[in-house]
Amino acid sequence: MSKRLEAKITCPSCGNQFDFTLYRTIWGEYPENRELVMSNKINVATCPRCNKQTKLPFPFMYTNAERQFAVWWEPEFDAQIGKDSEGYVQMMGPGNYLAAAPRIKDWNEFKQTIIKFESGELKAKPAVISQDE
User: Fold this and answer.
1) For 106-117, how does the pLDDT look when each residue is reduced to its tens digit (9 = 90+)?
2) Radius of gyration of the CA atoms of the chain, in A
């Protein structure tokens, strides 16, 4: 399931504050979710006062469990991504596709990386659920 977080946004145009739901992860195997990313609509807030649209530089992970790949969009360094990756290592073992997801700063490179994984040009390591003994 895609993970969303509630946030208070301040419009850079008029200074209005409003509530907005941000994606932290999105499941790209669902066409409507993939379209949000590819059409540049994910994490884009529209101010209810002035109608100015703003793409929020909030890092999120695009995953596709069917094709076993994940990619982070990280416009600015986010220490939480490293913590999340460690959690994936604990849950599924080292080198799994969630823990090994590349961290991409540039938006267009991020989308191109997704396309390369989808086409098979890039390969991710499969997820393996670790067994505690």
Assistant:
1) 999 999 999 999
2) 16
